[in-house]
Amino acid sequence: MSASLCRMTDPVHAHERRTPWSSSASVLAGLAVILAGCTTADNDATEDPDVPHTTLSVDHYIGGGGGGDAEPEHEFGAISGVTLLDNGRIAVVDRMNHLVRVHERDGTLAFSFGRNGAGPGEFDGPCCPAVGPGGRLWVRDGGNARYTAFATHADRADHAGQIRMSHQDVNRWAPLTFDDDGRLIDIGARSEPQSGMIRVYRMHVDSAGGVLSETPLHTVPDDSTSVRKVRRDSPGGTTTLFGYQPYGPVELTAHSPKRAEFAHALSRRYAVEWRAADGALIRAITRNIPHGPALSAREDSVGGARLDQLAVRFDMPRRQLGFDVPARKPPLRSLFFDSDGRLWVELAVGDGEDRRADVYDSDGTLLRTVSWPAAISLSDGAVRGTDAWGVATDALGVMSLVRLTGL
Asked: How far apart are CA 190 and CA 216, in angstroms?
C-alpha cells in the first residue's frame, strides 16, 4: 500500500503565485501533469507488509451513549469539538448547551464553563476548540462572530480576550490554528469585490482582528463535486439553495496546528495536496484507488430517501436534480491533522465496517495504517502522541466522548 510522494520545487510555487486561484481548472490540470511524472510503486488497495497497521479499541466512554456514564453532568447535547490541553486534560465543546467541559483523562469532570449569550465567556453555538500560544484555550464562537480565549486553571477558566471574525461566514466549522508567530488563522468565505465569486480564505490576523496576510483555498471546477444549486426569489432579493448528491464526491480540507500547513483533496480521487502556510505546494500524495466500496442496500435506500427530500425542497421532479444515488462511494472519506501535525487520510469503507486511515508524518512519510470502530469519528476528536479521543454516535444520535487505546 505504498504511496507515491512528490516534493514540489520553487518553479511550481512561483507558477502558483502568478496564476489566479479562480483559474482552478488550469491549476488542477497542471497538477495532473506533475503527478503523471511521479513514480508510483505498487499503488493498489492491498496492505503493504512494510507499513505497520494499528487497530484501536475503546477503553472508556464519557456521556450517555455506548454504555457511558449517563449522569446529567456527563451527558452531551451535541459535541462540536475536542482538544487536548497541555496538562493532559480534555476540553469538549457542547454546541447545543453553549458550554465547554474539561475532563481528566479518566473521564472525571474537572469543571465546565460557558452559557448562551453574547457577553465575555458566553457562547452562541461554539465549536472547534484549540490550544494557542501560552497554553490558552481558544473557541470558535460562530453565533457571536468571534474567537474567544481562556486561561484554564485547576478548577476554572478565565476569559482572556477575543478576536472578531474578518468575514460573515460565521456558521462554518473550521479548526482553529495558529501560525509560527502565534497569530490566529481566521478561516471563512467571502465575496471577492471584482468578480463577486465566493471563495474561502485563511486569514492571518493580529490581536485586534486586523488581517495581516491571507491565502485563498482552491476553487474547484463546478463539475468536480455533485452539487445542485437552485436560486429562489426572497424578500431580500434572491437565495441560493444547495443540494448534494448522497455519497457523491465532495471537497476535503484539513488544517494543521503545526507550521500553519493545510491539505486539500477531492474525495473522488486519492490525490492529496499538502501546502505551506502561504499556499505553496509542499508535496502531493497519491494512491491508485479508483473508487470506494459499493453501497449496501441500506445505504442505497437512505440515499434515495435523501434525493426525494431534496426534490421536495427544490420543488422539482427527482429526475431533474441532475444526479442519482451512485453505485459506489468515492475512495476518500475525510482528511484531518492531529495535534502533532500528522495527516490522516481516511478511506471510505463498506457499510458497518471499521474505519480506516493512512497516517503520514509531518515530513510526508507514511507512518502506519489505522483502523477503529465504525461509530466513532476521529476527525471530530483529538489525537496527540498515543492519546486518541473520538466522538461516538449511537443509533439514537446520542453522542459520547470515547477514549481509544492501541495507537
From this structure: 10
Listed as own residue / partner, the contacts of 236-243 with beta carbons closer than 8 Å and 24 or more positions apart are: 241/313, 241/314, 243/310, 243/313, 243/314, 243/321
Proportion of the chain above pLDDT 70, given as a percent: 84
- In angstroms, the Cα distances linking 132 to 113, 151, 183, 184 are 18, 10, 9, 8
CATH number for 186: 2.120.10.30
The domain total for the chain is: 1
Nearest Cα neighbor of 176 from 165, 192, 190 is: 165
Q: Is residue 318, in this structure, part of any structural domain at all?
A: no
User: Is the residue at 320 inside a domain?
Assistant: no
Predicted model pTM: 0.85
Closest CA to 281 of 215, 203, 188, 214: 215
Which of 15-24, 49-58, 100-109, 299-308 shows the lowest per-residue confidence on average (mean pLDDT)?
A: 15-24
Chain segment 106-155, per-residue pLDDT in tens: 889 999 999 999 999 999 999 999 999 999 999 999 999 999 999 999 99
- The per-residue pLDDT for range 162-210, each reduced to its tens digit, is 999 999 999 999 989 999 999 999 999 987 777 777 889 999 999 999 9
Q: Do 154 and 88 touch, CB atoms closer than 8 A?
A: no
Angle ∠(76,77,79) on CA atoms, nearest 5: 70
What is the pLDDT, as a whole number, of residue 191?
Answer: 79
What are phi and psi for residue 192, nearest 5 degrees?
A: -80, 135
- When computed from its CA atoms, the radius of gyration of the chain, rounded to whole angstroms, is 21
Rounded mean pLDDT of 322-337?
Answer: 96
Q: What are residue 103's DSSP bridge partners? A: 90, 109
Query: Could you give the CA distance from residue 47 to residue 26 in angstroms, rounded to a whole number?
Result: 34
Question: Is residue 397 one of the residues assigned to a domain?
Answer: yes
For residue 337, tell me if it sits in a domain.
yes
* Residue 156 lies in domain: 4-293+328-405
